[in-house]
Write a structure and sequence with these properties.
three-stranded antiparallel sheet; mainly alpha; 3 strands
Length: about 100
């Protein structure tokens, strides 16, 4: 189960945004700015700069799913202040 500090997760996300294909940049823009239409095609550099500018932990988790769609079970643990991803999903035991 990989874990990252929010600082490390921010940098990994920013680098992922910088490597994103142009078709993915519109989706990333929509995740970062859900109520604002892009004035033109968003640039990877502008979006990465915004990511590095400081997102809340919950925003990092939401963006993670867009930038790294193959990763599963991404969450922020407030106790250890880390982003966790690709963890085994545990179900809840049913009460009889």
């Amino acid at each position: 189960m990989p874990t990252l500090s929010t600082v490390d997760a921010t940098e990994l996300l920013a680098k992922g945004v910088e490597r994103a294909r142009p078709s993915e940049l519109a989706e990333i823009h929509s995740e970062l700015f859900p109520e604002r239409l892009a004035d033109g095609p968003p640039t990877a550099a502008d979006l990465a700069r915004h990511v590095r500018g400081g997102l809340e932990a919950e925003e990092l988790v939401d963006l993670w799913n867009v930038v790294f769609p193959a990763d599963r079970n991404v969450r922020y643990d407030e106790e250890d202040e880390k982003i966790h991803y690709n963890e085994e999903a545990f179900g809840y035991a049913e009460a009889d």
